Amino acid sequence: MTAAALYESTITHVRAAPVRNVFRYRSCLWLADLDALPRRLRGVGDRADLDRYLAGHGLAADRILMLAHAKTFGYVFNPLTVFWCLREGGLICAVAEVRNTYGGAHRHLLEPGRNETPKELYVSPFNKVEGFYRLSLPIPDERLALTVTLHRDGHPPFAASVRGRRVPYGRAGRIRMAARYPLAPMVTRLRIQRQGVGLYLRGLRVVSREAGR
Fold first, then answer.
1. 141 partner at 20 to 30 Å CA-CA among 49, 86, 94, 213?
2. Helix H or strand E segment including 213
């Protein structure tokens, strides 16, 4: 693959319980090698930091690909950043980094054949830190197709998906995506917060961060 790729994507959140709520929005995500990050992705992911994290799990990668929003005017917010860690041309693990709007973050490591991981981070003010995630994170090619489903008490109360198509990375493609999604990370955060307000007005009870654990 080239040094970087762009994916025009649709991101969908589906809340099944205790009330049903669906919202989706379009955005642009970047896929890049941590050893050759475009300027707008510098600081979004750090190769040395990921190497230390992998070493803590007894792993080492020759190459790491990252999927994320790029910076806009120096700002970035990524609810989910995915790292694909490769060695000798094969996948040794995927790392899903989840962030909340309160500044918290947690990494989930998934080795081949494993697609479940406990929920460890207070993400939504309406969900306790209980249950586990089931993730489908294939390395993107011409298409991007990621799914994260929260399972708790025998059913999935929440699921998120990212579906996209690769667009030309040349200068014209970057200008077109910048024009369509000029404030992508900022708008993403505002959309999530606006949905939270709407759910609160519909009667969902807020679970404090302390009680959520």
1. 49
2. none
The arithmetic mean of pLDDT across residues 91-111, rounded, is 94
pLDDT in tens, 87-99: 998 999 999 999 9
**157's torsion region: left (phi>0), alpha (psi -120 to 50) or beta?**
alpha
Counts for the chain of helices (H) and strands (E), in that order: 3, 10
Q: How far apart are CA 163 and CA 8, in angstroms?
A: 8
Please work out, in degrees rounded to the nearest 5, the angle formed at the alpha carbon of residue 169 by the alpha carbons of 163 and 173.
90
Half-sphere exposure of 123 (CA within 13 A, CB side): 22
DSSP string, 91-150: EEEEEEEEE-TTS-EEEEEE-TT--EEE--S---TTS-S-SEEEEE-PPPSSEEEEEEEE
Q: Which of 172, 174, 178, 108 is nearest to 146 (CA)?
A: 108
Name the band, by pLDDT with cuts 50, 70 and 90, for residue 192.
confident
